Amino acid sequence: MKFALIAVHLRLSMYEILAWAGGLLLYAAAIVWIYPMVSAVEGMGEYLKAMPDQFREMAGVTDPSHALDAQGFFTFEGFLSTEYMGWFPVLLGIYAIMSGAGIVARDAERGALDIILAQPVHRYGLLVTRAITQIGVLGVLTSGSFGTLLVGALLLDEPIGKLNLLYTHAVALGLIVSLFSFATLWSTIFLRTSRAMAVAGLGTVLLYVINVLAPSLGSLGWLEKMSPFAYYESLSLLNTGDVDPLSIIVYLGITLFALGAATQAFERRDLVS
Asked: What pTM, to 2 d.p., does this model score?
């Protein structure tokens, strides 16, 4: 029965999965393709040095006096961090939130959830099977991104740490799965895709804004650590490959808590609305 649930879930989501996979891979390929042109631009280093501190940080340039070295924009790692890996968990996170918000709510809205649960399948089994399947899909999409960038680096003959790139994608996947898990929780609470997506989406935007603005708020800078985005630093990961164990603990904790709460909410939820 579980294999049947997986097959049905993948079949119903196939076009959506392929669309997102194609979009992400095209974006990754485009970033790799334009890097040689951007790296050849003269005078960009001085422009980056003149940028306000907050804009430089968002662009991945942590030290304006070394804008062209290993910490800067013009290395392959710096460019990937700024133009792709910094945005990768946000972009794939949108899909994760959409899929999580509809994981059971979509069937409830169509009136199909009662029919599915009339089969020899438990609510817990249905939710967990779908969640694990979707996490697997997110893992495959992340692997595709890793492979595309790795092949691009080889074609351009650009040196890049393979393990560093792998670790960066792995930490990004942890962040993405945590966003998916919270969207899944709201799906089981509301049984309405639009409501779950709105709450999860607005919450994600708020957490992202906190991560960007908190460091400039002085005594309120500690708020940054309240955002899961604070534990994903693409430039540092690409340059050093050093994974902060705290990021693993945070993302794993968020995922287990949210999915655990989702199963409890789904078990107790009255399906009659």
From this structure: 0.89
